[in-house]
Amino acid sequence: MLGPVILAASRSDRMRRFISAAPGTKQVVDRFIAGEGVDDVVPIVVDACDKGLEVTLDVVGEDITTPEQAAAARDAYLELIGRLKDLGLGTKAEMSVKLSMFGQALEGGHELALANVRPVVEAAAAIGTTVTLDAEDHTTLDSMFAIHEELRKDFPQTGCVIQAYLFRTEDDARRLAAAGSRVRIVKGAYKEPASVAYQDKGEIDKAYVRILKVLMEGDGYPMIGSHDPRLISISQELARRAGRKLDEYEFQMLYGIRSDEHIRLAAEGHRMRVYTAYGTDWYGYFMRRLAEKPANLLFFARSILTKG
Fold this sequence. Notes:
- By secondary structure, the chain is of the alpha/beta class.
- It has 13 helices and eight strands.
């Protein structure tokens, strides 16, 4: 019940100001956000790789209101890719991008987002890595999938994300589960109406399993975005039934959540990628992490009370 309330708060400027000023906020934000700049995140990437993990990096910030801000977001990713190149980490670190950061919601946003994201995809390919297009709210998805399809013409390794709670996603999965595709499946973390999305957790979990089965039985490369122990176990069984080797799919989990499980899966020979976000505009990302799991909210509340 709390999830929709928190997601609504993620769009509130008043709540943004209140939470940003709360004494215990920084302690909790630091759990989920790897830092504010490239210099903060690079040591974390190096440490993860030393532990046998891989990473996907997200420069957070979705409240883009001008083309200049969209260009700055593009340049932030290009700076990141330059640092990864210098460190020789291109094969272990990829990028995750939200097209809203590249101007998708602005006038002419589809073309603007494509123009801004293409140089990032090109630069990533040049150092041996790739980019995954994150899914946002359902109104943006047709544009995201069209940009994904366009980018894959020149960069077929470009990935995308699908969200299990949306009714449309099973059809999207069947279309995307083709040779060479890279598809991350997540439950979904945006406030969506009952007309387009499942609202019940049990129904979302069932949809997740159905969609994952489509991906595992397809010819693409599934990326399992979940911290749920039951879904992780089901994923392993579906991979076994589909005859997939350990390097023919991967698990993805968020930085700061179930870190011991990251290590355990990697030790078992699984590809384990840590979704690592950084940047100064952390509010929207942070609030969705709270909405996803009540324990995160309790942790936040305790931090505010003990620091207040």
